[in-house]
Amino acid sequence: MQRPVPLNEEIVLDPKRYIVSKTDTKGIITYGNEYFIEIVGYSEDELIGQPHNIIRHPDMPKIVFKVMWDRINSGKNIKAIVKNLAKDGRYYWVVTDFEPKYDPLTNKIIGHTAYRKAAPKKAVEAIEPIYQKLLAIEATGGMEASGKFLVEYLDLKKVTYDEFVDSLIEYRGLTKLFFEAMKKLFG
Question: pTM for this one?
Fold first, then answer.
């Protein structure tokens, strides 16, 4: 499937709606809720069986996805602020909470669920320059160099990745309740 050409037009997400998708352990889409399908613009048949990176926007640094995959493949949840790409080339920003899914008999990871909602404007404004810097570093020094920068940036701020993202998205109150409710509903 050919990737769309990014446009400089944002899809404004409904703050009262949520996006849910599920993948297998290799990142192949196994489920997408109705709003996910509506926003990305692919039909359900076009999405199921495709790698989740079909919606990866080129403005997203590779190191962010490496951090995410390392965490969820080790059985840990992670939240991230992500810019995604729709089929028509438009983009949208989300806060994503990834969670591994386990086989109840073997306790091995069998898939992943991503719960998403519209990213707060101030979180996007704060993360976008960092992502641009990471992309510039990746272009000249590769993902290892961008990873080093990210670690140093977080060390300088004296926060973990999780604490940094939580502070940007204000992970408390209604935001926290939202993600907890989605996990109960789709978990």
Answer: 0.87
